[in-house]
User: Fold GNAT family acetyltransferase from Brevundimonas faecalis.
Amino acid sequence: MPHPLDRPIWNALTSTRQSNLAVGGVANGGRALRFAPGYGVFAASVDASPDSLSAMAELEQPEGLIATVEAEAAPAPPGMTVLKAAVLAQMVLIDLSPAKARDIRIEPLTEADAPAMLALATLTEPGPFFDKTHRLGDFFGVKHDGRLVAMAGERLKPDGFTEVSGVCAHPDARGRGYAGALMRTVIERILARGETAFLHSYADNAGAIALYHALGFTIRAEMQMRMLAKGGAGA
Assistant:
């Protein structure tokens, strides 16, 4: 049987926790779905048939693109071009490593922090992040003098799994252990719900992957990430 994380976006968009954020089903017979605009550009189709690929092409794209993450990349939908393609390392938590003693004040982030979260993500580019992405799950941050300098949270939620995402730190606040401490806070909440934590990293990001290994993650599979847009020149 296919693993649920082989198709993390489709399984999140059809899950008990995030199906309410899926759009596109009524218009195309449920063959292709995406996250509601503002939450993310991730999209998926039920399969790689011509009808499903055509349904993908018909999804609304107010951001100008959609993104897919699959174990096996399907052909580009008709009339769409691959703007960017990359190999991701998909990692799952095996056993959370013991915490190191650190004097780091971590606090939950709220709707009032949304502008600062978007600004930090726009600066550091941890992955696609929009004005409602922070509503996909619990986020935590570190602040200096009231300014958000690091954060981490949750994104995709296939049944039984939760993705750790949005991990970033301001360039002036790196090297202080914030990323690992924030991820641990997020992971502990995932484990307390009886779920498995997972994440994605660019396969060539050796520094990030080393951090994730140190936390207790292991690489499960290589995934194909693509950003697609209507028309245009491919990358």
Remarks:
- The longest strand covers residues 80-93.
- DSSP finds six helices and eleven strands in the chain.
- The chain has two domains: 4-86+224-230, 91-222.
